[in-house]
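Because showing beats explaining, we think one record worth quoting, sequence and backbone structure tokens together, and here it is:
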Amino acid sequence: MKTIASMAILLGFAGTAVAQESVSPYRLGSWVPRDTNSCDTIYGDGRQLCLADRYHIQQEDKAREQQGSLQRAQEENQRLRNELLRRELAQPGSPSTASPTSTVDFASIPGFASWRAENRWFGADRARTEYALLYAKDLRLEQPDLTGRPFLNALSARVREIFASGKH
């Protein structure tokens, strides 16, 4: 009789241990199936919990997969942008290297000396000079054929237009 009672208690503990394996530590109190189709063998409220947990697990997996895909796409996009920038900088006649970006670059433009004498603000007035440098880049992109003194005159006209209201 003691043997049968001992066996019953032992089987009870073993059954409890097997049942607890299907419940994960972060979902205590809910049914987490070992197999994706194991909810079909559960009846009643337990089945509803099992199906709900399975749905949430699938949604979490799908969200992780989408996040991973998005991250891979962003990394590839960044890699392609970097490659494009490297190629643009490597080209000898690219617009970014062809437009003057400093007062030294302007000095190499034909007619700069006489233009500079007429536009004393260049180099002395920081706001106007920086605006002229930035506008020079845009002007080169918009009108790449404009060079020399006509280019410089277009710059000074734009600077006069922008800074006309101020006392710079």
Q: What stands out?
A: Residues 94-98 have pLDDT under 50 and may be disordered.
